[in-house]
Structure formats: C-alpha cells, structure tokens
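Figure S7 source data.
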Amino acid sequence: MKFDKPATLNPIDRLRVVGQPLDRIDGPLKTTGQAPYAYEHRHQAVADAAYGHVVGAGIAKGRITGMELDAARAAPGVLAIVTAANAGPLDKGKMNTVRLLGGPEVDHYHQAIALVVAENFEQARAAAALIRVDYAVAEGAYDLAATRDTAKKVDQSATATGDFAGTYAAAPVRLDATYTTPDQSHAMMEPHASVAAWDGDRVTVWTSNQMIDWGAGDLARTLKLPREKVRLVSAFVGGGFGGKLFLRADALLAALGARAAGRPVKVALSRPLMMNNTTHRPATIQRIRLGAGRDGRLTAIGHESWSGDQEGGGPETAVDQTRLLYAGANRLTQLRLAVLDLPEGNAMRAPGEAPGLMALEIAMDEMAEKLGMDPVAFRILNDTQVDPNDPERPFSQRQLVECLRQGAARFGWERRDGRPGSRRDGRWLTGLGVAAAFRNNLVTQSGARLRLDRDGRVTVETDMTDIGTGSYTIIAQTAAEMMGVAIDRVTVRLGDSSFPVSAGSGGQWGANSATAGVYAACVKLRDAVAQRLGFNSADAVFEGGQIRAGNRSADLAEAAGPDGLVAEDSIEFGDLAETYQQSTFGAHFVEVAVDAATGETRVRRMLAVCAAGRILNPKTARSQVIGAMTMGIGGALMEELAVDTRHGLFVNHDLAGYEVPVHADVPHQEVIFLDEVDPISSPMKAKGVGELGICGVAAAIANAVYNATGVRVRDYPVTLDKHL
Ligand code: MOS
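Tokens for the predicted dioxothiomolybdenum(VI) ion complex:
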C-alpha cells in the first residue's frame, strides 16, 4: 500500500482497541520468566550448545605481532579458538564502521580478536585467560578537544540561510557559548548475546537485535553467504537504545564459533567488554551563537558541533533540531568530524537531538535571562509553524506552544523565581527549569503477513522487534481494530527474519511505521474475507468477529476455510514525508534541589508534555516517556564514559563506574499527551514518542540547577564539583 495522500477516516479511527491503555500482551511471559531472551534458548536446535568467550584487544591501535594459543587449546573443555587468522575470509558488512573481528590490525580497544569455545562458560573464560598476545602499539588520536582543529566539515545537516554572520554581529542582544557532552554508553539491561546453530550451510542466530533485516543482511555479507542462508531470530530484547541496531561481535562470533566447533555456540558480551567493544554515543563540543532584538525575537541562530569517530564513521548530528525548532531568518548549522581511534560511535537514544538539545536548550535559557524574559515566554515568542529554512514547507502538526503552555500551568511555573539562588527549603536550594523537546518523525517502509484461521483467530507475523517498547501490544491492537476481533483473538509473532521485513525498532520510527504496515496487510485481508464471502468490501463492517453489510452478516471464520486465509502487504511512504516537515514536540519541566553545602543534586519533580500524533496505547507510550525522562536524569547528572586519552579506552567500563539513575534517583514523574492526530504521518495518524521523551530533559535539569544555584554549568554531566 502506498501512502501518499493524507489519511482519511478509516477503521482505526473507531478507537475501540487502538488508543486504549491496554497492558502489554507479552507482560505475563516476561514477569513469569517464560519469555526467552537470546542467551536463554534451550530448544532442540541449541540444546547441546557450547560456550564462547570473547577476547578483546588490549590496545587501542596497532598490530598483533604474535598470538600464543597453544596453552588455551590444551585447556580443559576447549573445543575451538576462532581468530582472524583461521576464520576464513570475512567481509566487513555495511552497517559497521570497523571490523567486528580484529587482527592482525587493531582498530580500537576491546575490539574482538578471538573467541574461545569450550564445553562450559567457566572453561571458555579460563582458557581465554591463557592466550598471550603481543602487540606493536601505534599512536592514535583519542582526545576530541585536542583534535578539534583537525575536524572536517560534514555536509549532512548543514544550513546557511540568510546572512548569519552579519545579522549576529549587529544583533543588540547576543550569546556565544560553548557546551560539551561526553561519550555515553547505551547501558541496556540485557547485554549483547547470541546463540548460533548451523544446519549444513545455513545458519540460524537467536540474538538480541533491534533491526532484524539489517542484522541478517550484514551477517550474510560478513560470512559471504547468500542472504537466504541466514536466519536471525530476536523475539525478545532486553533494551537496545541504539546499541543493538546492527550486527555486533556476539552474533558474528557465535556463528563463526559454531562453524569451528561443529556445534551450536552461545556468546554473551560481558559487561566490562561491552563498553569498549560495542558502539557508544560520541562526545560533542557545541558552539551556539544566538542574536536577538530587544523585543526577544531571534534574528540569528548558529549552531556548530564537533564530534569524532573512527575513519569512515559519521558525526553526532547534534545540530539537527536547531534547523527547525525556532524562527529566525538568519541561520547557520554545521557539523565537523574528527578522526578518533576510540571505539566506534553510533546512534544512541535519540541520536542528534538528545545531545543537541542538551546544548541548545541551555543556550535558550541563557538568552532568555539576557533578554530579561521568562524562558517559557521566550520560546513561545520564537515559535514557527513552517520550516524556518523554507517557508513553503509547513509542519504536519506542531504544538510546541501548547506543550509549553499546558506544562507551565500544570507544573506551577508561575511560582518560579527568575532570580537564581533565591529559593531555599532548609538546606536545599531549589529551582525550576524548562526545555523544549523536539525529535523528527521518520517513516520507513514496513511489511506484515496476516493469517485468519478457521477458528477466527488472527496471527500477525512481521520481523518488527519489541525492545521493551510495547510493539507486541500495539500491533495486536491494530489487527484487532482492523479485523473487528477481540485482542485475545490476535497472536503476534515478531523478530524473525523469515517474516516480512518491517521498519524495525530505531529512531522512534517503529511504532507508527510497523503498525501502518500491519494496517496495510489488514486491508488486504479484509478484502480477501469480503471477496470469499461475497461482500462488497467498501461497505463491509468488521466487528465482533463478524463481517456485516446491510442486513447480511457472517462469521469471519467462515472466510478462513480449512486452510485459513493469508494476506501480506507493506506500507510504503510517498512524498508527504518531504512536502511536510514531520516532527514531534514536547516540553519538559523539572524541579531540582541542590544541597547548599555539599552540592548534592536531587531531581524532585518532572513533567513531560508531548505532542506526538495519535497515541496508540497511552500506557506503553507513558512507560516509554518516563523511561526516557529517567535517561535524561542520567544524561544531566551522571552518565559519562571517562576517556583515557593516553591509551585510548573508556575507563569506567561497568555499571559501578558508569552510573545510570536508580530508583532512588527518580522522583515523581508525570506525562501528558496532547490530543493530536496527524493524518500526514500514516493511516495510523500516529508518530514516534519514545525518543521524544529524552529530548530536552537534561537541559531542563541543568537549567533548574542554574535556577537553584546561580552557577551555570555548560559541561555535562552536571556533577557537584562543577557547581560548588
Ligand atoms: Mo535508536 S538510538 O535509533 O535505537
């Protein structure tokens, strides 16, 4: 189904099932421990799996000059050792910047250089410790600040509209400030894990992955196998946050290990290995220049961002939101990319906008103060309803102002004292902060297959993943609404590369695109049902397990026949995605308390107001947003990969050293969804919301800390040493 005209009234709009705050249909499986995660499969095909242990490179850059494997080979239980020297020819794959199995060249610290396969985990780990590696260390670049001047301009996300330099220079009120965000780790709960089994020249990998088609494609490419010889299965994912968008070393090495050992092999990356072995969110240095008239209207907006990555990698697109968030005729955005030999950077939790708003929304707070304006009023004054670089291009929906207004009223913003450091609650200095939230709404082709059985049950199959987000549930809701059956009559099967290719879970495009794909397949199935039963599908109503038209009705099950009825389709998005700027908006309000003596910072209250199209399930959507707000606390106050700039590695490579918020750090959180439907986005009229939830949070916290203390911190995380 091609989606190239605004959506009209359709069965989804009945909202009997879609839009309801239903519990997750996969919840009972998870809470009873029956949902199998990648490392837990015990079924027939992997029953005799051996265990693989990954050896990571001990240097960041250079060359392996010798590898002594004999002692490990002779160790108890060892079945095979895989290295680049014996793995056979491997391609790099498309999605990764550097090879997943290094050697003899080493591209980054803890790049996998060997897999030891043994009868059990302890034997594999013990044998791995016996491997001796000699290296010739080469000099590398590990310090973003030191390489900043070598960074090259990147075309992506660049804008030059009007006369930025001239207008900025002449503006009566100006801000020129530089902000930094650190390297961050996804730190999802479930580590990367896979179990692989070969059947002749076919391999199946049960893994933990957000994008099945990307992963299967790259595994085939890397192993130089035809695509149809590779199957990836990832029915449950214990968190991804961008760290599982691609094939990673666990999956590739499980496949190579299983081939070498002649047995299924399971591999999990240990937590201490993950931080340097997998991808991370790259650090940024961001310079923002804002120019405004005394009336508070922005006339010049400039945002430049520097980040680094391995040769051939990409930038952190931290200027993306600045192209679209506020009005202002003269605009400049520019990314610059330095080559660093740190582990590979990539997408993490709203890549681009999340770190970009960490800077931009402090800058807006600083500018409001310079102008003597309230930060909410300042943002409202500079709203735009069109793409500020192209006035002919409207937003499909844009309710930023409503988000700010409703949030301010709900949060008690009028009680904020604009004089920093002026509110006290015993030993605590208290403050309020606000930030706008912005994240683009991406749409991607997505397919699904539906089957109607003779008992009237509907089964949906798509390679869409549920990374803890609620995909199972919203897909079941979509099929139930479209086919007019109760939700417990719908079975959803996800995360298998033998199912139709979906949008996958990334960039907050999954919910809207994948349900729209299911919608398309449902339309086909409705047609097939109507045709089989001799109904005119245009005026047929699907309800209560029946199809009705005029005074005729029939049970859906009748159409299934003994063999069932199958329909498959995908949604393809036309140029509505270009004609309209599609984005999601929100506002975050935060209250913090800072201990006047120790600088300890506690977040006391948080509110998010989101405008993100139709909310398919307010319960799972709220869970997404409060999770994202929690990550925002991490981004503001805790999360930082500490770079050893001499040896080129992240030092704090476990959850003791890499701090994320725990329950005691998370205060009262409230989420409001504005009533919005967006007929431009898809037949579902929905958008993404998960990543919107993190966008702006950290700046709202930093602004609240400033309001509490009067100390402006421009370097994240905002730890107490920086504002004492
Ligand atoms: Mo997202 S960072 O594209 O999983």
